[in-house]
Design goal:
It contains ten helices and twelve strands. By secondary structure, it is of the alpha+beta class. The protein folds into two domains: 128 residues, 3-Layer(aba) Sandwich (Aminopeptidase), CATH 3.40.630; 127 residues, Aminopeptidase, CATH 3.40.630.30. The strands form two sheets. The protein has an eight-stranded mixed β-sheet with strand order 5-12-6-11-10-9-8-7. A four-stranded antiparallel β-sheet has the order 1-2-3-4, with helices on both faces. Helix 5 packs across helix 9 and helix 6 packs antiparallel against helix 7. The longest helix is centred in the middle third of the chain and has 17 residues. It is globular and about 60 Å long.
Length: 303
């Protein structure tokens, strides 16, 4: 039986210990990260915290609906055990029956079946195991990456971890190719400050002639280093500063039993950038449905 437990009643220590022990552990489902990224959320629990799944929700016109929280790529079911397909489907059926509208990303350890009433879309995350010597990891770089690293080495780039949250957000705002509203940067600031408080993030700046030309935020969970956010200005792009930063990070953490998680992208050029370092796709599924009275049930689809 799957129980719905309100946030205030969740045993944080037990919940987070299950996330940490999960084979597909990542930073997003921890209680403190959900608190910082979601408006409201609850937990679905099977057994005595045997399987757990966080669910974020909002309310509009007295109707509650499920949504994917801010900078929270994938959630889904976590357990010390393997999550069998039937269990994944039971959790999906639970949210589908309890909420008329939903948008939710499961994790790569959950496999869902097609059914009438909702759409399933397969998405790609890119990950690179750092469990090897740097020289071995570098051999898996593409010729494009090696060429761009040679070009980048011609510039006197310096990396610093002394950049602050405010400086990063301002740099991101000024160099974001995608237009975002003020709320986006306010949410970003709040989340980055919480990550800093928890000691789960590092902010890096890349400088050229003492000018900040690129910046990135890396998150650290038990089994992953997550490339969460990045930005470059024109000089940063010309000097290929992000190639330099990623290569430096791989060199620093080579030999650790951890994944470098690029968070994936549907934009081909960005996905190609991740692949240049030998990262490979990790598939996860996102479900969407809308059973509100004015909407007809959506047909099944698997991309």
């Amino acid at each position: 039986m799957i129980k719905q437990i309100q946030r205030k009643n969740i045993d944080d220590e037990r919940w987070n210990s299950i996330i940490a022990a999960s084979k597909h552990e990542t930073i997003y489902p921890y209680t403190w990260y959900m608190d910082a990224s979601a408006d409201q959320w609850f937990g679905l629990v099977m057994g005595d915290y045997e399987f757990v799944m966080p669910v974020a929700y909002r309310k509009k016109y007295s109707i509650k609906y499920i949504y994917q929280p801010f900078h929270n790529q994938q959630l889904g079911i976590h357990s010390e055990k393997i999550v069998e397909d039937e269990i994944s489907q039971m959790f999906l059926d639970k949210i589908y029956s309890d909420f008329l509208k939903g948008d939710y990303s499961f994790n790569s350890g959950n496999t869902l079946f097609e059914k009438p009433g909702y759409t399933l879309n397969s998405r790609q995350n890119y990950v690179l195991s750092l469990n090897g010597e740097y020289e071995s990891l570098q051999k898996n770089y593409t010729s494009n990456a090696r060429r761009d690293l040679r070009k980048s080495s011609q510039f006197e780039l310096e990396i610093s971890d002394s950049i602050g949250v405010k400086e990063f957000v301002e740099f991101k705002h000024n160099n974001n190719r995608k237009s975002e509203g003020d709320a986006y940067y306010q949410n970003m600031t709040r989340l980055l400050l919480e990550l800093e408080r928890m000691g789960k993030s590092k902010l890096f700046g890349v400088y050229l002639d003492k000018e900040l030309v690129a910046a990135a935020v890396f998150l650290f969970s038990e089994r992953r280093i997550i490339d969460m956010l990045a930005a470059s200005n024109e000089k940063g792009r010309e000097s290929l500063a992000m190639y330099h930063l990623i290569d430096t990070s791989i060199r620093k953490h080579a030999g650790e039993d951890i994944l470098l998680d690029f968070e994936g992208s549907s934009i081909k050029s960005i996905a190609r950038f991740f692949g240049d370092f030998g990262a490979t796709p990790e598939i996860y599924q996102r479900v969407n449905y809308n059973r509100l009275p004015l909407n007809k049930p959506q047909g099944k689809k698997n991309v």
